[in-house]
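Problem 3 from the worked examples.
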Amino acid sequence: MRQKIKIQQMRALIKTVNDFLGEYDPKFAGKIPNELCLGTGIQEGGNYSFIKQYTNNSIDGVGCSYWQVEPATHNDNWQSYLKYRPELAKKFLILAGERIIFEELPEENHEGFIKNYIENERYKSKTDDVLIHTLPYAIAHCRLWYYRQNFKMPEYFDLEEIANIWKTYYNTKDGAGTVEEFIHNYENYAK
């Protein structure tokens, strides 16, 4: 029998991660972005039951974590976005468990470390294990993907609008999920 994560715990963890990213830009944080990430995990991770996408009963699926972050998305977040924002990249590395490096390195060496880390594509080693086993890191990649898209976050919670954002920007028109399915899953699990 599968154990399910308590939704209140996941909601609190998502809030903590988004608040941490919100120190970089307040747009990362807030009730609506938190619920968007929560609903994405519900939908993509089968009500927080699956940490790896399975294809044809195989375990070498593409998406990792409850948020099904694909290696291509993970790497693009690093190469196209975090590479140019070392302050934000540092937060991602801390969420990936690299806090000790920044505690031991003198502050004036942090940016050089981050630049070297990205130029040598060391982030690629984080795609499977760290995304699967480090929930804050996976949440951050989910949130960053939405943050990078060209849409205005709703001011008030509207589940249908949240579901449409997920479908348009995360699942895409070619994805198997539907807005109705997202709404159904959120209503039945997010309480």
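Problem 4, a separate protein:
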Amino acid sequence: MRIILLGPPGSGKGTQAKLLSHNLGMVHISTGAILRQAIRQQTPEGKLAEPYVTQGRLVPDDVVNQMVAALFRSTDRPTDFLLDGYPRTIDQARTLDGVLREQGLPLDAVLFLDVDDEEILKRLSAGRWDCPNPACGATYNTINKQPRVPGVCDECGSALLQRDDDRESTVRQRLKIFHQVNGALLDHYQHQGLLLRVRGQGKIEDIYDNLARQLKPKQRK
């Protein structure tokens, strides 16, 4: 399958993306993880993106578009994938449409995790922790997904880090920007007949079951 997973920051996209990609045999493409790795490594794209990420602002489309287009134009491009965190704007979506059309990789579905703003603030301000290992990238929080050992990743044993852009004031700014651009993005995919909305609150397992149920009619034979 080829799907996009959308949702506000802190909606649980990363967790659900890992479950879906593993269970349905897709490559998980997290542009957020790609950007954070580029920032840590101080690549040219990372240096351009860093001030935007730390201030809770959107990274310019051209920077992100270049990274994604290069991936799908490479000789080892994925043919079954889940995009997590991209596209974030209507311009990114149109660019992605063109790249996927050029490569003969039409989308099967676009999933939107719908979560209330107050729930997002509660999740992130309560403490979200990320695994810095690029090969892992697991996320945790103190509400419904605590690591078994405090400060240590369950999956790979790396020391967890708290992101600078999870401060409450920054989260509010991120949500404001998200709502400003998200309406047009959802309309774009609704008009293509791809959009599936799923409530993103509750137990992780229940949310996953709802996502998988929505996707079942879209699976290619």
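Solution to problem 4. Strands lie at 2-6, 27-30, 81-84, 109-114, 128-130, 139-141, 195-199. The chain has a mean pLDDT of 86.
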